[in-house]
Amino acid sequence: xxxxxxxxxxxxxxxxxxxxxxxxxxxxxxxxxxxxxxxxxxxxxxxxxxxxxxxxxxxxxxxxxxxxxxxxxxxxxxxxxxxxxxxxxxxxxxxxxxxxxxxxxxxxxxxxxxxxxxxxxxxxxxxxxxxxxxxxx
Length: 137
Fold this sequence. Notes:
By secondary structure, the protein is mainly alpha-helical. The protein has helices at 2-11, 14-48, 80-113, 123-136, and strands at 59-60, 65-66, 72-73, 77-78. The strands form two sheets. The protein has a two-stranded antiparallel ribbon. A two-stranded antiparallel sheet has the order 2-3. Strand 2 (65-66) and strand 3 (72-73) form a beta hairpin. It is found in: Cell membrane; Membrane.
């Protein structure tokens, strides 16, 4: 039972919950960036480069053929267009995360630079003053 309790306390730590949340949000963010890249960014770039669809770019190593049993054998290709698309996704995601972290750091610096509230006398000092006033009466 001790191992189960330790495991439960480990899972319920704030860091693990925050990490799980970050992974889920990051996955959703990755899908958004992939859609942005595939559906919004790459079509105009492909159009500017001569109506090229990057996902269709490939280098064909062998031709499609039919074996003795009459089954079609697909051609062997190196799909470098998909790789280019993935690299662009990675760069966009990296830039977005960089911008978010930059904004976070800026907000943390503002919190640190905020002047501390003026502090008055401590409780001990206040109690000593009250004691002295009571003695005078």
